[in-house]
Amino acid sequence: MKKNNKQKETHFDNTECKVNQLELQGLEIGKSRKIIVKNDGKVNSSDAGFLLLQQVEQKHRIIEKLSDFFTDNRDQEKITHSLGALLKQRIFGICQGYEDLNDHERLRDDPLLQYICGRDNKTPVAGKSTLNRLELGHELDEKLKDRYSKITWDARGIEDLLCQLFLDSFEGPPETLILDFDATDIPIHGEQQKRFFHGYYDHYCYLPLYVFCDDFPLIARLRPSSLEACDGTEEILVKLVGAIRARFPDVRIIFRGDSGFCRESILKQCEILKIRYITGMAGNKRLLEKIDPQMVKAEKLFGKSGEAERVFTRFSWKTRSSWSRNRNVIAKAEQLPGKKNPRFIVTDIPAEEGDARSLYEEVYCARGDMENRIKEQQLYLFADRTSTWWMSSNQLRLYFSTIAYIFFVHLRKTIRQVSNDEIRIMSSTIRLRMLKVSAAVKITVRRVWISLPESFPWWDIWIRTSRAI
């Protein structure tokens, strides 16, 4: 009887071993060899990039400063996961590509994440339910009595922090700062609070307002799509310009936006603040008549070359009723194959600082890069995950995405320095090459041993980046 029991026991172990492995055939790697895939390797983390993110945090204290604008009313003697650990886990998770709270049910067992969140070895970090309580907190100025929440946050304080982190990123006073304003849509697929249909985008959506300077986000304000794209611009300009000049009194500031920001109130606010502006401007019949000679010239040049031709002009202009004074308009009269393509911008940048062509092509058109930064944040850092019912919770998610993007701003800057490459690397590329790296983690009393693969193709850049941080 004992012998039979032993044989059955051995047979069960062999069966279980085969269940936990995968046999692949037909891959033509070696016709006499089978490919056996198992998950018993010594690698126990697929996210060695947590180390780089933690180094950025230690240097710039981004999440530590962010936590100052949260109020944790939980009983501190009974909690398991501190507020700082929750913020770090959520934001680092976004950086690593984990967009949903459900992802943290498995991510909570990652030994690297446990270590940098201050947990003991093999002690899980927070799960989705605890993180959900963090996200469903509410702003300090809201009086919401219909839901349970003990973690509150200060929206204006977090918004001010974004500008502060931007100013802290400079080693010395900059000469010129260009503030790019733009609005975009975040589609809504449920019955979220302040849900409206937007005619231009042709769906229900939010209409967040972003402000970038180069690739650094200064404002990420979630708004209902019932507002105009430029709503709130004047107030934001006053706040940003005041904060920038308090740190750098002599810096030259330029406001830049598309035609949706060409409003009398905004241009006048720029003039009051004594900053330059350059914005798009919608065309009309009077403007088209004004540049008719330039269009004729562009047509003649196109007839000779057979290629697209541009003719630029600059002139003083005043609208019939909306503008309070004359302003300088730059027009591009362009003839393309089969059609005309006139465009207009308004600016108060003096002619001695650039001719009409250079101001249009080199200064104004450069705002297109900001649109790439917005797409990058929404596509790869999940700024569009506004699926909670409450507007305030969706705003908090947008802030988490923005803070995560700041980590990539610092990583990108360092990578470009150590590689002597001026190419602007996308956050998705940084994540793929530098953050999503497998690692074997061994924690002892005196050491934390972390082993990356010998075949890791970006090891040279990875180690130089880590040392530079």
Q: Compute the number of helices.
A: 17
SS content category: alpha+beta
Radius of gyration: 28 Å
Strand content: 15-25%
Q: How would you characterize the overall build of this protein?
A:
The protein has 469 residues and is α+β, with helices and mostly antiparallel strands. Helix content is 42%, strand content 19%. It is built from 17 helices and 19 strands. It has helices at residues 2-19, 50-60, 62-67, 83-95, 104-107, 111-116, 128-135, 155-168, 233-247, 264-273, 285-290, 292-305, 356-364, 368-380, 391-419, 427-435, 459-468, and strands spanning 21-24, 35-38, 70-72, 138-139, 151-153, 176-183, 186-187, 196-198, 203-206, 209-213, 216-221, 252-257, 276-281, 309-317, 327-336, 339-340, 343-347, 440-443, 448-451. A hairpin with a 4-residue loop joins strand 8 and strand 9. The model is unreliable at 5-16 (pLDDT under 50).
